[in-house]
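Researcher: Next sequence.
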Amino acid sequence: MILVSACLVGCRCRYDQGSKPHDPVIALIREGKAVPVCPEQMGGLPTPRLPAEIIGGDGDDVLDGRARVVNSAGEDVTAQFLAGAREALRMAEAAGAAVAILKERSPSCGSAAIYDGSFSGGVRSGVGVTAALLRRHGLQVYSEENWPAHTGESRS
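Model: Next structure:
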């Protein structure tokens, strides 16, 4: 089983109540091979909500208490991001998932890049909170942009 970001299958769970449907990920759901999650909703944040970015590091730093997640009004939403990451991990474990395909650049789900914390649209290298937690628990984490089966690379 594969854990996937719910926004990639068309769920309107993004901060702006939008989605980012991605046909190869939707196909996994239709084939019964994937389980969708939205860590931010699962952590108790509403939809729509103010955009949030990681300040002072990336998801690993948030897990280790060295960085925090704040929304565009300056409110600390770290606790909700951590709770959502734990719920996503719980779902992955319950489903027996060994792989996750998550939305790139998200402060929860980014697997290689996240927004830079300035709320200006800038991007930097780093992982989101959920991506970091899943990796720490042995899952292979990809984005919709670098997932090997989607890009034609081997899965080995």
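Model: Residues 70 and 77 are 5 Å apart (CA to CA). The two ends are 16 Å apart (CA to CA).
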